[in-house]
Design brief:
binds zinc ion, Aminopeptidase, binds D-tryptophan, Glucose Oxidase, domain 1, about 500 residues, single chain, about 25% strand
C-alpha cells in the first residue's frame, strides 16, 4: 500500500501513566503494530458476527437503538475493548424516534398501496376523509403557493409529484394553503420511502405512493380519500461507544467508526454488524497500549438508522479545538454484502457524480484505501459522498474522511459482476433492512478483505497522517533536519565560493 510509513529511529519505549485517585500505575506500551492487516483473521471477525446474531436472537430479533438488543451489543463491544486495555466511554444522548403503528389509504373506495413519510403527523383515530386535489405538474410541483393558483385546496388531500424541493417543503406549502393531508408520488420507479427529515418540519398527515399509483390518482380529482396514519414520537435515550488507545498523540487522533445499531426489522448482521466486527477485531489486535505516534479512537455509533443521530451528536458535542484534534475519520458501513461490490468513498470527486469532494485530505484517504484493496487484488470503484452514513457530520465540519463498503440496495451491473463475481441484476445486498439480513447472508471473503484493508490503513495512519493533513511525527521532523542542514551547508559553500572569486 502507498501509505508513507516512516520507521522511528529506535522503537519508542512509550510508557503510559494511568492515575486513579492518588494511585498511578505505569503500563509499558506493547510493541509497535506491525502489519495489522495480515493479523486480521476472517474467522475472528466472523465470531463477532455470531455474537451479534445471538444477541439479536435473544432480544426480539433486532439490535435497534433504544431496544435491549442494542444495549446488549454495546455491552459486548465495551467488554472486549476494556479487556484489551482501551480507555472506553459510552456517551449518552437522546433523540425523538418515530414509530408507525398502522397506515391505510383508500381513494374512491379502492385500497391504495403506499407508505408513510417519516415524521408525518398521525391522523385522528379512524383517519381523515377529504376530497383529492391534484397539484399541477410544473417545474416546481407543489413547491410554491403559486403552483396552486386557481385550485382551492382548503380541506383537501393534495396529490403532488416528487421533485425540485423536499417532501417537507411540499407538505408545508399545502398546509399553509389549508390542505388536510398530502400524497406525494414518485417520479421514478420504485416506492417513495420518503421522510420529512425532522419532526419539527411535519405539518399535515403525508403519505407516499409509486409513480404508477400517483399517475392513476392524478386522473381522479375530487375523489374521496381516506387516509389513516397512526404513529407516535418517543424520546429515546441511547449511547455511542468511544474507545481510545492510551498511547499516541491526542492532538492528531486517527478516528474510525461503524454504526452498531440495526433497523428494528432484523439483526442487521451486514448492516452493520460487519463494519462493527471488522473495526472491533482491528481494535483488539491493536490493543489499548500500542507504540503508535497518533492515538487511535474507535467509535461504535448508536441510532445511525434513525438519521445518523449518534455520530452527528458526537461531532456536535466537540469544541472546534476538539474537532481539530481529529486528524481524519474512517467509516465502515456494510462490508460483507452477500452480492458484494467494492467501494471507497470518492474523496476527490473524480467520478463527478452527486455530491462534491470531501474535505482536503479525503482524496489521499481514498487513495490509501484503494491501495489497501489493490494489494489484495481487488479493484475498487468510487462511491459518492452522499451523506448516507456516519461520516456526514465529520465532512460537514471539515474533517478529512473516507471509508469502504460493499453496497446496499443498488443493483450490480454486468460489468461489476464480470469484475468482482456475484450476480448481475440483483442488489449488492438484497436483504438490506429486512429480517433476512442475518448471519446466513454475508460474503465472508468480502468481509475479510475489507477488514484487512481497514486494519492496514488504520495502522498506517497511527504511524503518520502526513499525506492527509501534513502533520509530521517526531521521527519525520528529525529526518527533515539533516536535509535542512545540507541545504544550509550548500548555501554556505556557494557563498564562500563567490567570496573567494571576488
Ligand atoms: N448502510 C446503509 C446506508 C447506505 C446505503 N448505501 C450506502 C453506501 C455507502 C454508505 C452507506 C450506505 C444504512 O445504514 O442504512
Ligand atoms: Zn448502515
Ligand atoms: Zn441501514
Amino acid at each position: 500500500m502507498s501509505l508513507r510509513t516512516i520507521t522511528p529511529r529506535r522503537s519508542a519505549a512509550v510508557l503510559v501513566a494511568t492515575c486513579a485517585a492518588a494511585l498511578c500505575t505505569v503500563t509499558p506500551a506493547t510493541a509497535a503494530p506491525a502489519d495489522l492487516g495480515s493479523q486480521i483473521n476472517g474467522n475472528a471477525v466472523n465470531r463477532h458476527l455470531i455474537a451479534l446474531q445471538r444477541i439479536a436472537d435473544q432480544n426480539d430479533g433486532n439490535r435497534a437503538s433504544g431496544l435491549p438488543g442494542y444495549e446488549a451489543s454495546v455491552d459486548y463491544v465495551v467488554g472486549k475493548l476494556r479487556g484489551a486495555g482501551f480507555d472506553v466511554t459510552t456517551p449518552e444522548f437522546t433523540y425523538q424516534a418515530y414509530y408507525l403503528d398502522s397506515f391505510s389509504l383508500a381513494v374512491a373506495g379502492q385500497p391504495t398501496e403506499g407508505d408513510v413519510l417519516e415524521y408525518s403527523p398521525a391522523t385522528p383515530q379512524g383517519g381523515i376523509t377529504a376530497p383529492l386535489a391534484v397539484a399541477p405538474v410544473d417545474d416546481t410541483p407543489g413547491c410554491e403557493a403559486t403552483d396552486y393558483d386557481g385550485t382551492d385546496i382548503t380541506g383537501a388531500v393534495v396529490l403532488v409529484q416528487r421533485g425540485s424541493c423536499t417532501f417537507a417543503d411540499k407538505q408545508r406549502v399545502a398546509a399553509d394553503l389549508g390542505a388536510a393531508g398530502a400524497i406525494i408520488y414518485n417520479n421514478v420507479d420504485g416506492p417513495l420511502n420518503g421522510t420529512l427529515g425532522d419532526p419539527e418540519a411535519a405539518r399535515i398527515p403525508s403519505a407516499g405512493v409509486t409513480k404508477q399509483v400517483g399517475e392513476a390518482l392524478a386522473g381522479q380529482p375530487g375523489a374521496e380519500v381516506k387516509l389513516d396514519i397512526q404513529a407516535r414520537l418517543e424520546t429515546v435515550t441511547t449511547r455511542n461507544v468511544v474507545a481510545q488507545t492510551r498511547t499516541g498523540r491526542t492532538d492528531n487522533v486517527v478516528m474510525a467508526g461503524a454504526h452498531l445499531d440495526s433497523v428494528p426489522e432484523g439483526a442487521g448482521i451486514n448492516d452493520n454488524g460487519t463494519g462493527s466486527a471488522g473495526l472491533l477485531e482491528t481494535a483488539l489486535r491493536l490493543g489499548g497500549n500500542p507504540a503508535v505516534n497518533n492515538a487511535v479512537r474507535f467509535a461504535f455509533w448508536g441510532a445511525e438508522e434513525s438519521g445518523l443521530v449518534g455520530s452527528t451528536k458526537y461531532v456536535q458535542s466537540l469544541t472546534f479545538e476538539q474537532q481539530l484534534d481529529i486528524a481524519l475519520y474512517l467509516n465502515f458501513d456494510m462490508i460483507g454484502s452477500p452480492n458484494a461490490g467494492y467501494f471507497a468513498y470518492d474523496g476527490d470527486d473524480s467520478d463527478g457524480v452527486g455530491s462534491g469532494p470531501g474535505p482536503q485530505g479525503s482524496a489521499q484517504i481514498e487513495q490509501d484505501l484503494v491501495a489497501a484493496m489493490a494489494g489484495q487484488g481487488v479493484a475498487v470503484e468510487g462511491d459518492d459522498f452522499d451523506g448516507r452514513s456516519d461520516y456526514g457530520e465529520f465532512i460537514a465540519v471539515g474533517i478529512p474522511s473516507g471509508g469502504l463498503n460493499t453496497g446496499a440496495e443498488v443493483v450490480k451491473t454486468d460489468e461489476q459482476a464480470a469484475k468482482w463475481g456475484g450476480t448481475a441484476g440483483i442488489a449488492f445486498d438484497p436483504n438490506y433492512h429486512t429480517v433476512n439480513d442475518n448471519l446466513a447472508n454475508v460474503d465472508r471473503v468480502a468481509l475479510e478483505r475489507n477488514a484487512k484493508a481497514l486494519a492496514a490503513v488504520i495502522e498506517g495512519y497511527s504511524r503518520s497522517t502526513e499525506g492527509v493533513n501534513g502533520m509530521l511525527t517526531r521521527a519525520e521532523r528529525a529526518q527533515l533536519r539533516p536535509a535542512q542542514g545540507a541545504v544550509m551547508a550548500q548555501r554556505l559553500d556557494a557563498a564562500s565560493a563567490n567570496h573567494n572569486r571576488s
